[in-house]
Design goal:
By secondary structure, this protein is mainly alpha-helical. 91% of the residues lie in helices and 0% in strands. It is elongated, with a radius of gyration of 19 Å.
Amino acid sequence: MRLVMQFDWIFHMVLVVLALMVILCLIRAIIGPRIADRLVAVNMIGTMVMVSICILAVIMQEDYLVDICLIYAMISFLSIVVLTKVYTGVYMKEKDEKEKGVQS
C-alpha cells in the first residue's frame, strides 16, 4: 500500500500520457487514409483503454475494475475480428470486380 502511494504521481502521469495517445490514435482513425490504418488505430485505442483501467484499479485499489478490463478486452478483440472480416469481404469483392473489369 505504501508503495502505491509513493508512485501515485507516476500513475497519474501515465494516465495523462495514455489519454494523449488515445487522442492521437483517434485522429489517426479519423484521417485514415486506408481502412487498415483505421483498424489498427481502433485496436490501439482499445488496448490503451484497458491499460488505463488497470492503472485505475491499482490507484483506487478496486479489484472489480480488473474484471471489467477483462470483459472489455474480450469485447475489443471480438469487435476487431468482426471489423477485419467485414473489411476482408469488401476488399475481396472490390478485387473481384476489378479483375472482371480488366478481363472484359
